[in-house]
Automatic annotation (TrEMBL):
Its main location: membrane. It comes from Tricholomella constricta. InterPro entries: CDP-OH_P_trans (IPR000462), CDP-OH_PTrfase_TM_dom (IPR043130), CDP_ALCOHOL_P_TRANSF_CS (IPR048254), CHOPT (IPR014472). Keywords: Membrane, Transferase, Transmembrane, Transmembrane helix. Pathway: Phospholipid metabolism; phosphatidylcholine biosynthesis; phosphatidylcholine from phosphocholine: step 2/2. It is found in: Endomembrane system. Belongs to the CDP-alcohol phosphatidyltransferase class-I family. The lineage of its organism: Eukaryota, Fungi, Dikarya, Basidiomycota, Agaricomycotina. This is diacylglycerol cholinephosphotransferase.
Length: 415
């Protein structure tokens, strides 16, 4: 018995990737570089290998953060963190990830391996990178263990969910003039570089003080937020803009297909529900110093949340490539609901948590949540890859001779 039903597997052969990229930076600056860069890779290298290489570089960045600051920042602005030169490696690593993530599709067309498996694998790696970069960027911005870091996690995950939701309903991946995979990543790279030069404390300076606008009368009426918090406010406006643009695209596609355009909006609620569960867990009252946001459990909690999110959007992408119903419920939420309810028992019934009654018990439970989240997502990846490769007769990390000689390969290939 496979993970994907037989009738859904049959839809894989009907799938074809469609994408729109309106980014000026991508078109005139990065794409010429990517087109050259992909030619450096032998045809014997599978596109998924390139994708996985990029994610591995991001993991290296993440582990360097843990090496120099194993407990993460004790509070906002509360620790020195890694040496400044490390942030330059993060910038280089993220640029490498962006480049490798961009050329895997080009390599797939070069080798005749373009198809639904590459779409699944690419988006799966992107989903994990989203959480890792949210943590790293919050560290570079000197946000530390704070609700601003939580807000950063929610905003980045929301943007990714929104893009996947839009692709499911429109049938194409739409990247606007300013998108997360292009301009968003470049913005984070710039943050790493600035932090490398001036250190994380640079971002605690007031925005109007740095820009020397604080003496302008109407500016004085505005809150003079630190640079890091100002960046988060800017991100909130960016998220709102993306929501409007994505819905406009979905509404246009639904009207063209003669389908109701309001129903897709209800499918945004699964993300709201999932995020609300995690926020409720984080909002637990302080009991025996076990509050997650004030403890070393903060990073493993965010990682577990990210893995659960990757499982959620992974099922959405699978539904897209197999033309099946949009997944609304994810059973892994049950575990997080238990954790959130238990942590908030002092609010609910006025008694101490049962499971997370002490700091030690809370630590065990959160790390167990991380392990379970990893196993659930790893199981999903293995089973889906196994089903797709077996049904389509392809390999995940190997380029076969029949791929190179297949109908997808053309002598006049243009990356």
């Amino acid at each position: 018995m496979g993970y994907i039903p037989q009738q859904s597997l049959e839809n894989l052969k009907k799938y074809s990737y469609k994408g729109v990229d309106k980014s000026i930076v991508s078109r005139y600056v990065l794409n010429p570089f990517w087109t050259w860069f992909v030619t450096l890779w032998p045809l014997s290298v599978a596109p998924n290998t390139i994708t996985l290489t990029g994610l591995t570089i991001v993991f290296i960045n993440f582990f360097t953060m843990l090496y120099y600051d194993p407990l993460y920042l004790t509070e906002k602005g509360g620790a020195t963190g890694p040496p400044n030169w490390i942030y330059f490696t993060w910038a280089l690593g993220l640029f490498a990830y962006q480049s490798l993530d961009a050329i895997d599709g080009k390599q797939a067309r070069r080798t005749g391996m373009a198809g639904p498996l590459g779409e699944m694998f690419d988006h799966g790696c992107d989903a994990m990178n989203t959480t890792l970069e949210a943590i790293l960027a919050s560290h570079a911005l000197n946000l530390g263990r704070s609700w601003w870091t939580v807000a950063s996690q929610i905003a980045t995950l929301a943007n990714f969910y929104l893009t996947t939701w839009e692709e499911y309903h429109t049938g194409q991946l739409y990247l606007g003039i300013c998108s997360g995979p292009v301009e968003g990543i470049l913005m984070i790279i710039i943050i790493y570089i600035i932090t490398g030069f001036f250190g994380p404390s640079f971002w605690d300076q007031k925005i109007f003080t740095v820009t020397r606008l604080e003496h302008i009368p109407f500016i004085q009426k505005l809150p003079n937020l630190p640079l890091n918090e100002s960046f988060m406010v800017f991100g909130a406006f960016g998220l709102a803009f993306n929501i409007i643009c994505s819905y406009a695209n979905v509404r246009r596609a639904m009207k063209a297909a003669g389908k109701p355009h309001l129903r897709p909006l209800t499918l945004l609620f699964p993300f709201v529900i999932a995020a609300s569960i995690q926020v409720a867990w984080l909002s637990q009252p302080e009991v025996n110093h076990s509050a997650i946001i004030n403890s070393p459990n903060f990073v493993p909690f965010l990682c577990a949340w990210g893995l659960q999110f990757a499982h959620q959007v992974g099922r959405m992408i699978l539904a897209h490539v197999t033309s099946t119903a949009f997944p609304v419920w994810d059973w892994v939420w049950i575990w997080s609901i238990i954790g959130a309810v238990d942590a908030n028992l002092p609010h609910i019934i006025g008694r101490a948590p049962i499971i997370q009654s002490t700091m030690r018990n809370a630590t065990i439970f959160i790390w167990l949540t991380l392990v379970i989240s990893f196993v659930v997502y790893a199981r999903f990846c293995v089973l889906v890859i196994n089903d797709i490769t077996n049904y389509l007769g392809i390999a995940c990390f190997t380029v076969r001779k029949k791929d190179l000689d297949g109908v997808w390969r053309h002598k006049d290939f243009k990356a």
